[in-house]
Design goal:
The chain is of the alpha+beta class. It is built from 3 helices and 5 strands, in the order ααβββαββ. Strand 2 and strand 3 form a beta hairpin.
Amino acid sequence: MAASLNDPRIQRYVVVGVLIVLATAIWYFRMYSPKLEEIKNKESQLEELRLKIHEAKLKVETYDELKREVMASYYKYRALESLLPLTQSVPEFLNHFYIAARNNNIYLSSLTPEAANQVDFYFVSPYSLKIATTYHGLGGFLADVANFPFIVNAGGISITAIPSATEDLSINVDLTLYTYNITESQRMPPPHFEELPE
């Protein structure tokens, strides 16, 4: 028995099959295709968000490490800053100078304070000295100056022999000692860190 399209039962099967294909095509083109594009867009957005989350986690780790480094650097800065007094303390400098000179048999001919100069964020106060001593005394004096509780540099050292040298005095020395100080407004404030959002 051959199937004939004139058979109403076959016609129903064909119509139902065409309706199923038509409904599937309508569903695919009207519902599934637009949603497929939306799904692809959402997947790419999800991937971007995952990438941003990963970068944020790395930044948080880096931020904490940088925060520790900044604080360590700040503490080192504070330690160095303690060597720069807030004001030019001439009496303290002269007291330390006198002790260093006395301990090393330094004979002072002249001590001339000069005008302080501002360099970057600090002030330099030069003191011109003329002293008489021995090489050993000069070395001990400069070593003591280097160990003052604040920064002092020596420069412009000129040494001449004394013609009638004795055991206590064999050289004349012209030199300049430089002391440094900083103003309160120039001091670095402690670092401020904003908390990262959770």
